[in-house]
Amino acid sequence: MRQRLAGLRRVAIVPAFNEEHALPGVIDELRTFDAGLEIVVVDDGSADRTADVAVEMGVRVLRLPFNLGIGGAVQTGFRFAFERGYDLAVRVDGDGQHDPAQLERLMEPVLADEADIAIGSRFAGDPAGYRSSRARRVGIRLLGRVVSRIVGQRVTDTTSGFQVLNRQGIALFARDYPHDYPEVEATVMVFRHRLRLAEVPVTMRERGGGRSSITTLRSIYYMVKVLLAIFVGLFRRNVVPQEDAS
Amino acid sequence: MTPLAVSVAGAIASFTLVLVVLELIRSRRLRERYALLWLVTGLTLTALSAWRDGLNVIAGWLGVRSYPPAVLFAVGILFILAVLLHYSTVISRLSDQNVLLAQRLALLEAQVREGATSEP
């Protein structure tokens, strides 16, 4: 795998919102995993020293002038990756819940050209590893069922932000990416654009610092919003990305 | 009792609102985030128009004896107020962000200009 990786220009997109404590650990782990990985921290209008911490550690920082929410922040990273011509992008959240050591496994389907986007799923393998509020777990399950039915492939974790994308995946998300709570809609989008998606079982860690941007009340709002977006999205014309994938 | 024509017209009008909102979302002219309140408005008004006994009961609670459809107007106005208030908060946020963007752009421009002139 290392050899296949060596020929590719690869970037890690790390969205971070007030993650000054967790971020250094994430950057260190990414470097340990792959020294040739360009690391780009997208600072989503943090009020703390997130951007400074990233600069001190010598990684590239895209500092947003105000908080765009996770969708807008991540898409900034995808646009960067697309414009700078990267072949492979990994997305790892800045809060430390994604373990870069598992990237090796996550990259496998993309490097083997079996998928355009690989998503780390908390539920594909042993579900015991994931702890979260009950409302959120139920919500995630329900969304998984709805999405699986729509796309015709079993998708267990539609809310995971732990992802690896090839050039086609980067091109799609650079052009069009949903806003708040984007992963569910993005999953449906991937299928509607006829890209290949693979789920890889991963375990996620407790959050390293900061706090989740999603509270229980908001989960309900997001749930309604996301379901609405999915169903309305079904009636959109199927747009296949025009950008040349090469 | 509500005249049947009022119920039918009200139901058609409010359901049309729902369909228009859905179409606007589909064609990406309206974000889901800003559409939710409109959808709730449309669906509530549709329900109150179509469910005639319900409208009478609610009118009874509110002490409206003579003309139950007045409740329809009241609910409609209430929702419009909510939508307008929501827009005011959205506009406020947008104008704050706009100021910030202009300031950042000015700083960036100065930086680019100084960088360009300091070149040998």
Describe the structure.
The complex is a heterodimer of chains A (246) and B (120). Chain A is of the alpha/beta class and 246 residues long. Helices cover 41% and strands 14% of the residues of chain A. Chain A has one domain (2-233): Alpha-Beta Complex (Spore Coat Polysaccharide Biosynthesis Protein SpsA, Chain A). In chain A, strands 3-2-1-4-6-5-7 form a seven-stranded mixed sheet, sandwiched between helices. In chain A, helix 3 (50-56) links the parallel strand 2 (38-43) and strand 3. In chain A, helix 4 packs across helix 7 (167-175) and helix 6 (134-151) packs parallel to helix 9. The two termini of chain A are 21 Å apart. Helices cover 84% and strands 0% of the residues of chain B. The relative contact order of chain B is 0.10. The model of chain B has no long low-confidence stretch (mean pLDDT 90). At the A-B interface, helix 9 of A face helix 1, helix 2 and helix 4 of B.
Shape of chain A: globular
Tell me the number of structural domains of chain A: 1
> What overall form of chain B do the CA principal axes indicate?
elongated
- Kindly report the greatest chain-chain contact and the residue count on each side: A-B, 12 and 15 residues
Structural class of chain A: alpha/beta
The total of beta strands of chain B comes to 0
Q: In CATH terms, what is the architecture of chain A?
A: Alpha-Beta Complex
Termini of chain A, distance in Å? 21 Å
The low-confidence parts of chain A are: none
Domain module tally of chain B: 1
Strand order of the largest sheet of chain A: 3-2-1-4-6-5-7
Tell me the helix content of chain A.
40-55%
The N- to C-terminal Cα distance of chain B equals 86 Å
User: Mind summarizing the main beta sheet of chain A?
Assistant: 7 strands, mixed
- SSE pattern of chain A: HEHEHEHEHEHEHHEH
Structural class of chain B: mainly alpha
Question: Which band does the percent of strand residues of chain B land in?
Answer: under 5%
